[in-house]
Amino acid sequence: MNAHPPTAAGTSSLSQSRQWLTQRFSERVVVLSPPRTGSTPVARMLWQNPLLRYHCHEPFEAWYWGDGHQESTVSAALRHPMCVASGERVDATTIEGQPGLVIKEMCFQMDRPAFEFLASLATRPLVFVVRDPRLSIVSRLRIVQELDGASTFTPEHSGWDSLLLQLQWCRMLHIPYLIVDTQRLRQQPERQASALMAGLQLPMEGLATQWSQRTGLQLCSPEVGALMSEVRTGSDPFYRRVLASSGIQPPDDIDLSDCQRQIDAAGLRDQADSWLRAYRGLQDDPRML
Description:
- By secondary structure, this protein is an alpha/beta fold.
- Helix content is 44%, strand content 11%.
C-alpha cells in the first residue's frame, strides 16, 4: 500500500480530456472527500437525478497509487465512465445527447494541479463530503486491517489535511462549493437531500434517498484496486456496504470511547484531535448544508 507522493498532474492529455468532457457532458458534478466519510452514498443519491446518467470513479486513483504519475491513467478513467443504469463502462467519446456526469475523488489523491483540473470541469459548486473524523479513522483502520493486516495508516491517507487545504484553495480562488456532513444526512435524509439539490440548483424531481441494491457494480476496476491491495480485486471492502444498501441509512450506534481507544492504539491521537477541531470548525462554514 505504498503510494508515490503527489506531483503535478500535467497538462497535455488532461487538456484533451477537458475538451471532450465539456463537449459530451452538459452537467459535471464533482464530489470530493476524505476516505470513509460517505461520499459514495452521496454519489448514489445524485445518480437518482435523471440528468446525471454517468459516473467517473476516482480518476486520480491509479495516478496516485501507480508506478510514477502517468497522466494517461487519468484520461483513461475519464474517458470510460460508468453508465449508472447498466453499470457498464463506456467510451465517453461515443456518448450522445449531452447527459450529466458525476465525478467522485478522494482529496488526498490530488495535488493542486489535479484539484484545479477537476474544479475547472465542474458546472455546479464542488461538493465536499465530511463526517466526524474519529468515525472515518476507525472505519479506515478496519479496512486496512482487512486489506493487508495493517494496524494503522499514513496520516496523509486520512484525507483531512488535503480536504482543509482544498477548502482554502476554494476560498482563495473563489471556487463555489458546498459541504455535506453525512452524519446530518443520515439523521435527516430528505431535508439534507433537498438542501443539496437546491445548492446545486438541480431539479427536485431527482430527489431520492432510497434506491435499489447494486451489489454487482465494480466502482473501482480490479486492475486499479490491485495497486492498493489484491484483496480489492474481489469483493472490494471499500464499497461492499454502500452497494448493498437500499438508501441512506440511519446513524450507527457508535461508542466514541472505543473509537478513541482504537485511534490511540494506531498512534493517530494527535492528528485525530487536530482533525476533530477542524471538523467542528466546519460546522460554522456558511456553505455547510
